[in-house]
Amino acid sequence: MPRVWKFGDSINTDDILPGKYAPFMVGEDKFHTYAFAHFRPDFAPNYQPGDILVAGKNTGLGSSREYAPEALRKLGLKAIIAKSYARIFYRNLVNLGILPFEAPEVVDALQDGDEVELELERGLLRRGGETFQLRPPPGFLLEALREGSILEYYKRHGKFPGETP
Amino acid sequence: MGLTLAEKILSKRAGREVRAGELVVVEVDQVMVVDSIAGSFFKRLEQLQATPRFPEKVSIVIDHVAPAANVEVAKAQKEIREWGNRHGCRVFDVGRGICHQVLIEERLALPGGIVLGSDSHSTTYGGIACFGSGMGATDIALAAASGRTWLRVPETVKVTFRGSLAPGTTAKDAALEMIRVLTADGATYMSIEMHLVDGAESLTRSQRLTLANLTVEAGAKCGLVVPSGEILELYPIPEWLYPDQDAVYAKQVEIDLSTLTPRVSVPFYVDNVEEVAQVRGKKVDQVFVGTCTNGRLDDLHEVAAILKGRKVAPGVRMLVIPASSEVLEQATADGTLLTLLQAGATLGTPGCGPCMGRHQGVLAPGEVCVSTSNRNFKGRMGAADAEIYLASPRVAAATAIAGYITTPEELEGTHA
Ligand code: SF4
Q1: What CATH topology corresponds to A3-114?
Q2: Pocket of ligand 1, candidates B34, B35, B64: which has the most ligand atoms within 8 Å of its Cβ, to mutate?
């Protein structure tokens, strides 16, 4: 069963993927193996696709490097639950098709290592007999995600969600 | 109700009045791509099966690892040059300088314009009231392909800087003080609108760029300095490019420059700001002067004035990396470089240098660095436990001479 990897406040992009392990430094095929290399070395080797990342305030502050969340997606991450997000990181998550849920109470309730199940579409999180309802991201973002990603959306429609042509 | 500066710029571009909270799709003037994400940028364009809609509006800058540090990087940079040629996009090659500084010098970022950069410190353009914002590879590729981007019109935090800088303080100290007051997420998703009044109008373009550069460290989408002083001489300023008197702000903060003291940001977060006096005496291994925050000519002048006739302390490495080839040229012509070299400083190729820990001055475990840059996150400049203290060029210079964190005034024994 998927597990929770819990982090604290202010996880920055250098924590998630140090600049020296950027794809253009170490190669496209390897960079994701350095996710949290300094910060939490047991993460990348033990992460199983579907495991959920749970974090505190201002998650993803720092650099605009999309390859930080991209490393997480390559490992199989589909959703993050955090108390709040830094702006660029939030956009990057959505653009990569990783769902950013904002739910401070749920973050407080979850512990590192908890076994959970997440129904992405409905935003339903289960831990044992308990259920948490997560608020989905804003509609225009979901519109893009429904088509796979914002790239797919733009390719198909030649415009951005909500844009009048 | 009036409009903030960010609302003004986005309204102008959208062709209708827009306010905080609305979504807009707007045309952008320039899409800036840095070497380290160029590969992802190309890949995204391929996925889109698109090429840049307006090639002249795309600039790629080879600055983050320049010259190349290994074969992977060399390959990536070779691809950038070839791609740039193929598509007719500008490529600023090794040695031209740091992306933000280059776009300012080349007048590709202009007051009232919109520049998107694949680098978080794209807020820097706000120093000249250009809406600059950082985004990731996908957003940047979409902007290149479409010529547009979608934005949520940001709420605004108004920061008023009042008075003239107290002796011994700089725009960097003012910027660090702003981040301390706002905190690392105090302006997330917002615009920081900076008003310079009662003497602060005299801050130069370079100093304004320093202020705008740091705004992203409070989470801001953009950081706009209301045009005044030198900016009015350097650029034509459209008359609409001012916030309205009755604009609506989410928050207002005042910083009195006349009572400011030298500041330092202590590891491992930028908003961990203290007075230099608090950490005075901390021994350092490396001092780094440069970056898009403080690698300009006036910064090198401040450093040279302190280093003149003195020597860098034994056991301390002092790296100086001018922000651009233009800065390097001017610092050579006016003798600044000779002063720095005579004092024992080491010179690097204009570019980012060791700012993000990839080359040219990476830190060993346990080492301590005073840097004029903008981030001191864990592991940012190398080993995870190396410590980065962010400070002004003046404090950096004095620290290099003393071998421990201090101010020029303390070096002279003139402090109160
Ligand atoms: S100098 Fe540092 S902060 Fe500025 S663009 Fe380069 S890496 Fe980023």
Answers
A1: Aconitase; domain 4 (3.20.19)
A2: B64
